[in-house]
Predict the structure.
Amino acid sequence: MPSAHRLVAAAVALAAALAPAVPKPGYYHPSSVQAGATTRVIMGGDAVWGVQGAWVSGGGVKVTRIVPVPGFPRAAGRTERPFVRTWLYDLLEDKLPTDKRHRKLPPEATIKETDWEECAWWFFLDALDNLELQIVARDLYTPESYPQDTPALNKLLILDVEVDADAKPGRRDIFLYDNASMSAPHPFYITKEPHVCEPFFVFPPRDKHIPLPHVLHLPPDLKPHPLPVHLDGQIWPGEVDGYTLRLEEGQQLVCSLLGRELCPYLGDAVPGYFNPVLRLYDSRGKEVAFADDFYYLPDPVLTYKVPEDGFYILKVHDNLFRGGPNFVYSVFCRDARTDRPLYAPRDRAFACYPQPASFVPPKAAPGRIVRKGSIDIPGRVDRHTFTVKEPGTWHFELYARREGSPLDGVLQLYGPMGDLPLSVAPLLATWDDAPGRLFVEKNVGSDDLPIIKKFMLYEGSIPQAECDPSGTFTFETPGTYCVTVADQPGLGGEHYDYTLVIAPAEPSFEVFALESACLVRDGTARFTACVLRKDGFAGDIAFDSTDDYEVSGGFSGDEREVDVSISFGEKMKWTGLTNLQLTASGELPSGKTLTVRVTPTDPAEQAFAYSHLLPARGFTFGVAEAPTREKFKHAGPHLTPVKTQHSGGKSCISCHDKKKAKSHNKGKACNECHQDKE
């Protein structure tokens, strides 16, 4: 019955709405901090106001405090926002005596319910630090309907990140957790060099109390910065950030930018990722260096041999002048004579597109041919011959992008060769980009509601791996055959390495975890996994247990997606983070058992329309200390926004001083006004 269908659909929607929301960080700014310092980091995302704590992988880094930023109201009247602006500038200009920093509110008779909204931060401005004042100011001077103000990014947290002086530099992962789940890992870098971070917001002149756009086109930061230095910023639409560098004659300037490496996919931008540009200007305003893409990676690396001492301006912008809160970047400026020289593509590729834990470089084995080579000259074509002794199906696969090479490979199969030269040998097959698509069936309704059953499409198990070709061919005639390897656009160079694997085809499978970070509660963690069956594999697949944990769940029949639980029992003696390598096994038609590593991934959206499985560097499990809330409780008066009502039903807008019991205009005490919510 249609009514029954509607009831079931409504029940499904209600269950989805009531399901615990996993914290979804969209960006961290800055995303790199210096060892030995405590840095305030802004996180923008969704479902984060219930966050209980945060972890950073590796040693020597901890998050000591988390401050939720309230959602600032948009008052309908013309009184409240000018009042806050005036008070804000009084604080900035230090015109108020220290003992009278708290402004007196207007007489209650002038405050109308339609004109005033309670906001903890608005009425405790003198208790805010400089970063928090910048957040208030950005809200006051930002148009309400700005198109980049996406709901998925506008919930803010401030994290105090403390880094030991001897913390190892390099990439880490940062995780948020609440009482039910963990967020996906987000890149976070520790450096030994000093940092310069652009202000979160630059206050407009006092006399311009009108809404301004996000971007104030200001001159570059004119304070000269010597090398080495990290420059951290955030690009808004149309914005060009500028920094002044103090350079010396003979320096080999290298400026390498992390942008897409920090946010690989953007769900609300086209083409779906930040594509930054670097420009260098001398003291006369002449552009002397420019950098866009670095090989196939969108994050640029600018190099310049400094001809003379002086001040130079380094500018950063998107190549299409797009922007938004998640267009964050960090530029490492250094002298290649004393610091590490120019990155190879492999160095950048592994940072930008991390290899999943399941990736194992192919090695020669019985029946498998492994050939390594390099297209070191543009236009070069490598030839690899092999012998087929009996009819059968063979599999061909090239590993290049997955190994950090810029090679955009293409394979061609010729033969049988006999005495024929390659130029006249029959061309049997050509393989270019791999489709790299994984279809997962999700049944979100019941069997009698097929319309609720849908397929989820994920593009590729590894970003950029679609450039690595693969294919199968059935040989009917024994003989000698040849496979050629070339770069599709005809490029080449010293970094264009590859590995070619030729082997008889055999059914196999890949297993993906659809989340790479799991919170352990009561000794148990749960996640969802899906399988990609290859070359006709149709057997059952089970997850493997060890002496340290037991895994339940597996694939049977034609199942593509299953729920998995992992139990640690009494052997779980740890708190914080730990990494595990899970495996899954299935029996092949030959009778052999195939065991594969489970690839931990996190779904990511690109450009409003595409879903990806972004591989993680490891499978991370977290155990929270108890209690967690008190550890991160903010000591100030603005932990969370509050909306208190007097017992008589009237808003206690004037009861902002918790130290003194105020009285309502009807004489009733308001001792409980502005109490922090737990």
